[in-house]
Design brief:
433 residues; mainly alpha; 73% helix; 21 helices; globular
Amino acid sequence: MILFNPIVISVIVLSVLCLLKLPVMAALLISALTAGLSAGMGFSNTMEVFVAGMGGNANTALSYILLGALAFTINKTGAADILAKKISQVVRGNKFTLAIIVILVSMASGTIIPVHIAFIPILIPPLLIVMNKMKMDRRMAAICFGFGLKAPYITIPIAYGAIFQGLIKDSVNQAGLNIIGDLIWKNTWMAGVAMFIGLVFGLIYYSRDREYEERNLDVVDSSKEVIKVETKHWLTLIAGIIALVIQLKTESLPLGALAALIFLIITRVVKWNDIQEVLDGGINLMGFIAFVMLIAAGYANVINTSGAVTELVDAAFKILGGSKLAGSFTMTILGLLITMGIGTSFGTVPVVAAIYVPLATKLGFSPAAIVFMIAVAAALGDAGSPASDTTLGPTAGLNFDGQHDHIWDTCVPQFICYDIPLMIVGIFWPLFI
């Protein structure tokens, strides 16, 4: 029976453990052991295969650590605080103007200056006074963050997009389907369109006024402050551009981040004695995610080595009756369950790729459709999951004064606006490409 397949058992264990709020790393490790043991591999062999597979995401993990160090440095210079003051002065009481700015800054944090969510707890608290005056519903801002943090890496192969799409390429190739990186961004644009539709809906629906109390805001109203941009802030901006240019030239994100850090050290934005603090800051910001990447790759390696993939594919093919529509629906729902539990699209890719590639190939899906379904399935975990950076980051800033609920004000709105449109295109669009 399909329910007794090692992969199915391990995925159920993974989902249950994540729902019980066991840390993702521990849940992945236990699930990998479950897959190996139920496949008859034994403890020792399972662990050997698991550890051997972790190296598959070494490049991704290193990218996260170095980008974390760069983000820590940028925050330390006060550049994000300068940006918050500037935003306060240009908004002029228009909540839609602020919404657009939040989207653009969020998009830049994953592409031009790859600092990811590290800027949010610094940028948002000074803006809360301005948002309260405008009676801006913070769910509107949460929607903006969701789009800005997520849509770029799905559709654009730059910075975090290079990590995500490179991870898809490597995982798909490891699962037995040879593709080139260009195939991914040339097809994931439809996911970006779906998210844009969700964004427009969210901006309109949450544009109604909402009252907030003025409490616990020990920050100065930035709209009246004089902005003083120092040399270190310009050098920090240049460092971000260096990271982007080197990454595009060499197709190596770790090299780009390293070049940016070296530039900041040479220009003395980062003092020699502060290098250890910067590296520690990078590990604190991104170390957890980096280890999740490594463990997810090990889990995928156990699944591939167990031999259970072929059995699952054959059984699923018989149940689905060869129907592409039933197949895309099943894989999309399975992806939702896995990614909502894990809470990271990046960590999910190796897991879903190991299952999707052989099943989708047997159902007759094209390589373009397969990479699209993997990208969508993985992205589902970033919007709506309580354990996702895309939800945790915005809540960290918007709940500075204790008036923004993580589940109902961040997770639920993002799920409605993004996961529902993504599931729709995830089910139907692969039938046409």
